[in-house]
Amino acid sequence: MNNIWGDMSQYNPVTWHWVIAVYLFLAGLSAGSLLIAIAMRWVKGDREESPVLKAAALIAPVAICLGMLCLVFDLTRPFHFWLILVNYNFTSVMSIGVLALLVFIPLTFLYALVVFRGQLATIGLGFLQGLADVLNGLRKPMETLLFALAVIVGAYTGFLISAMNIYPMLNTAILPALFLVSGISAGAAANAVVALLLFKTPAHDHELGRMHGIELPVVGIEMLFLFMLFCGLYFKGGAAAAALASLTTGTWAAVFWTLVVAVGFGVPLLSLLLPAQQRHGKGVMLLGALCSLTGVLALRHFILYAGQSYLG
Amino acid sequence: MNKRYVMVHDENKCIGCQACNVACRSENQVPDGVTRLQVRVEGPYGEVPDLHFKFDRVSCQQCENAPCVKVCPTGAAYVNDDGIVTINHEKCIGCQYCIAACPYKVRFINPVTLTADKCNFCTDTRLARGEQPACVTVCPTNALVFGDANDANSDVSKLLNSAPTYREKVHLGTQPRVYRIPARKGGIEA
After folding, report:
1. Are A98 and A85 in contact (CB under 8 A)?
2. Per the CATH hierarchy, to which homologous superfamily does domain A10-309 belong?
3. A94 and B71 in contact by Cβ < 8 A?
4. What's the complex ipTM?
5. What topology is assigned to B5-181 in CATH?
6. Is A2 on the interface with B (CB under 8 A)?
7. For chain B, which residues make up each domain, given as ranges?
8. Distance of alpha carbon A288 from alpha carbon B75, whole angstroms
């Protein structure tokens, strides 16, 4: 420092750090895993609980709770977090997000009860059997509500940071859509990992294959949205166009091109070129899924840090 | 009629002495390492011997359309009865959404209270006692003028009606209430 006007460290424009990026990732992951699993269940008209659905029912509550821990312990006064539950400001995206999460989080736990209602006794939760059976009778409305809330939660993580018009890269209409779609791709990947490792699903499982098949269009839309984001900045000119420097200079450019593009998009897409026998092997599927998850986590970091580094 | 408190910083009169900075720290008990108000000295510009500096007041711009108030989830950042944007520290949880959203980057976490903090024109201290903000009172060159712009007879109204002024980042729609009179010597870049 040693400026006569004092310390400048409080003026760093990057306010939110990696903990928030991890939170944005986990919330998107929680919503995305449910969205893809419930949608597949509806399309197939399933009666039994598929490994993918079981994976989602497990991932959704765990991921969102880990995300909440990140969020609360990133507060400067974590033990005052309850104030956000009793005070609301409806012009604040964060406040609206709190309301959505207040319904979404309990619902993910109740949905897990329903999906695992056959195994409750074996894991020592037999006393919840009655509740699980009652909820199973309300399954369709419950799934519909959960699906809608998952869309809201997935998009909200984007709205949260796009609401700040000082950051041209964040203040774009495409960001909530981008986060929703990349959340779905992370959710699909996490579902695959958990189904393969925890529920010992064979890699050639029909449903895993279908979920894998959805990956190509989802990644395609994700890349399209990213392209639209950058084009929007370019066409806007001025400070917005200046923010495109984040693609060519600094640490975050390296993170973007290596982790987001090469690892996150490149590896899973290239694995589709393998012969069917290898492509559906357990090792390749796991590798692809872990690369997708890495890519989405890196994307959250890139958007958050690069986004906050350029002011309008 | 509602009050519309505004401040004018005359960059011709300012000498960058930081008396305002120090007075603010003392009046508002701002801890070391953080500031509500600083005057950045930029330059020197020009050719020797005709050198000059530019003085940039960095503090809350008291936006009439304040992003911090909009994004605050608990209502801790709010608009006072006198129209001044201030903070209810009891309600602040330190999510830092306001700090991120502030276009002028003048909000910070107070290391003592662990809540968001910033200039509020001394609304709860000196203004409440009918006095002018600390920075205005202490300025040795009278570079700061403060008052109600809705009162046509106030000094600040007369000044705004007679001097050319500019405000920062008006393109973001924030309607800041800190006006600056540009320095005649290269206050606005060629």
Report:
1. yes
2. Formate dehydrogenase/DMSO reductase domain (1.20.1630.10)
3. yes
4. 0.93
5. Alpha-Beta Plaits (3.30.70)
6. no
7. 5-181
8. 44
